[in-house]
Specification:
Layout: E1 15-19, H1 46-58, E2 63-67, H2 77-86, E3 91-93, H3 103-112, E4 116-120, H4 126-133, H5 138-152, E5 156-162, H6 170-181, E6 185-190, H7 205-219, E7 225-229, H8 234-244, H9 252-258, E8 269-272, E9 278-279, H10 296-302, H11 304-309, H12 317-321, H13 332-339
Parallel strand pairs: 1-2, 1-8, 2-3, 3-4, 4-5, 5-6, 6-7
Antiparallel strand pairs: 8-9
Helix pairs in contact: 3-5
Length: 364
């Protein structure tokens, strides 16, 4: 479950992610952006970046994430972080584990006012992680960056993308995170087949449930938060487990009623591309406008796309009939990737709402 409290997602998002560049020297097999070595000539300028930060500050967005590609490819990165810090915008960064990620870079980011460094780690061993990232040595550099961050006093988040290639390794990942890395958050991404991500690597609905069980078990014994990205139905799983706890003081209906609203694509979440296009997420490639031509607040609050994604009555299939749809809502990005309709039912959810019949998931 999210470590953040519930809020009104109609007015402002919980999280704005800005793709500073698509340039990157890694060749990740699941990259949504199909990143390339060179920067795009139409990337947002420094002045446009500062204007974006002003808009994020004015909307009082709780968290601003700088991502890529590799943000270290931009020479103005430190100036951007410094400006966000001056505007009191809490900023996190997701760099690529390349030779650009050095000890000096980590310390300079900390001195510039960065709040957190988010590092990708897709396997507990070098062979698995480096196979994901397409470059040998990425695993070692990632672990080095974790150490440099601790040395600098910069909190560390680890991002892991789960696919058929690595979901068997999750128990080992938990052990590594628990015993060696001292992270504050483990963000587990569930594959959306877009960019380089392939349908063949997608987990089945039943495999999603298996992963959820591992995450829930881990959440009982680790010191860090665990959250999911494009795994919205993990929230449903957590509530089911809490309801089945012999010590539970509330039934499932009350747990649902008291649960925080679930963040979803376009619902508390905004992704801004390297050229300023505004998307519900980085995995849902439908633009609602461009910040160069229209204020971010107007796009988020008023665009037909974002408004419809926040309206649970528009969800189709079993998601539309599901009692968990305000907490979960399913991955709108995965629905679009596999059906062409962002409001279609979540294709990778094994749960069947009671009105549609029964299955083993309902009794978990």
């Amino acid at each position: 479950m999210s470590p953040f409290k519930s809020r009104d997602f109609e007015d402002r998002p919980l999280l704005v992610i800005w793709e500073m560049t698509q340039a990157c020297d890694l060749r990740c097999v699941h990259c949504r952006a199909s990143a390339q070595p060179q920067r795009h000539p139409l990337e947002l300028s420094s002045a446009e970046a500062f204007n974006l930060i002003d808009q994020v500050a004015a909307m009082r967005v709780p968290l601003f994430v700088l991502t890529g590609g590799d943000p270290l490819k931009r020479p103005d990165l430190y100036a951007v972080v410094q400006y966000a810090h001056r505007r009191l915008v809490r900023t996190s960064l997701t760099p690529s584990a390349t030779p650009l990620l050095t000890r000096d870079a980590v310390f300079q980011l900390k001195e510039s006012g960065l709040m957190r460094l988010a590092l990708s780690l897709d396997g507990s061993k070098a062979e698995l992680h480096d196979g994901f990232r397409g470059v040998r040595g990425s695993y070692r550099r990632t672990l080095d960056a974790v150490g440099w961050s601790h040395e600098a006093g910069l909190p560390v988040q680890v991002n892991t993308t789960v696919t058929r290639r690595n979901f068997h390794d999750l128990d080992n990942m938990v052990e590594l995170l628990l015993t060696s890395l001292n992270v504050v958050l483990w963000s587990v991404f569930f594959l959306v087949p877009t960019g380089r991500g392939q349908v063949a690597d997608l987990l089945s609905p039943e495999e999603h449930e298996t992963v959820f069980a591992k995450l829930y078990k881990a959440s009982k014994c680790v010191r860090f938060h665990i959250k999911t990205t494009e795994g919205q139905h993990y929230r449903r799983y957590v509530l089911q487990q809490r309801a089945n706890d012999p010590q539970a003081k509330m039934g499932i209906a009350d747990l649902i009623a008291h649960a925080p609203k679930g963040v979803n694509d376009g619902k508390g979440f905004v992704f801004i591309s390297h050229t300023g296009e505004v998307y519900p997420s980085g995995f849902l490639p439908l633009s609602a406008g461009n910040i160069i031509r229209k204020p971010l607040a107007d796009i988020y609050r008023k665009s037909t796309l974002f408004v419809s994604l926040r309206d649970r009555s528009k969800l189709k299939g079993k998601c539309g009939r599901c009692e968990f749809n305000d907490v979960c809502g399913g991955s709108r990005a995965r629905a679009f990737a596999l059906t062409g309709d962002p409001l279609a039912e979540e294709p990778c959810c094994a749960y069947i709402p009671p009105s549609q019949g029964t299955n083993s998931v309902n009794s978990l």
